[in-house]
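S.,

As promised, the PRP run. Input:
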Amino acid sequence: MVEHTLSLLIPKEKIEVRVKELAWLISSDYAGRRPVILGVLKGSFMFLADLLRHLTVDPLVDFIAVSSYRNGTTSSGRCFLTKNISCDICHKDVLLVEDIVDTGTTFRFLIGHIRDHAPSSLKICTLLDKPSRRAHAIPIDYCGFTISDDFVVGYGLDCDEQYRSLPGIYILKKQ
Ligand code: PRP
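Predicted complex:
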């Protein structure tokens, strides 16, 4: 069995502060409008829930789920939808909310998919950005934290479905 070591990268108090700041920015940018906030499952669920609690606009909330064929922890570059959106986003302001942008493979696929539905605008919000591994340029509009090339878990992020419920973000090392 593989042993894991976790070391704290971002404590929950720091996440709380940054999520409030992002919510303030988003509320200000979408003031007077009703955006569709699309959470990308599964990893974004905790970030999205906290973000929504601090918004001063009243968004329509929906979810989309994507999977990619992976070799261990590395994306193969091929994605497929496991849950499509369930609302009409044509001529709507759409904000995609993710937990992490890593290679950018997932977002490249999602941006193409969402644009096919003809929204009037499309913006991207991610809690974590790991630019060192980027294979595709992704226009991020709202970013919580930029991190280095470490495998992270907690606050929605998992390793083989472990550690999603941790309140902080941790670097995971396999022994
Ligand atoms: C993670 C994360 C992003 C994606 C980012 O999802 O939630 O969706 O990887 O990686 P990329 O930029 O290299 O595409 P994962 O496939 O682990 O699924 P999960 O959200 O259900 O845990």
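Helices lie at 12-29, 45-54, 105-115. The first helix runs from residue 12 to 29.

- D.
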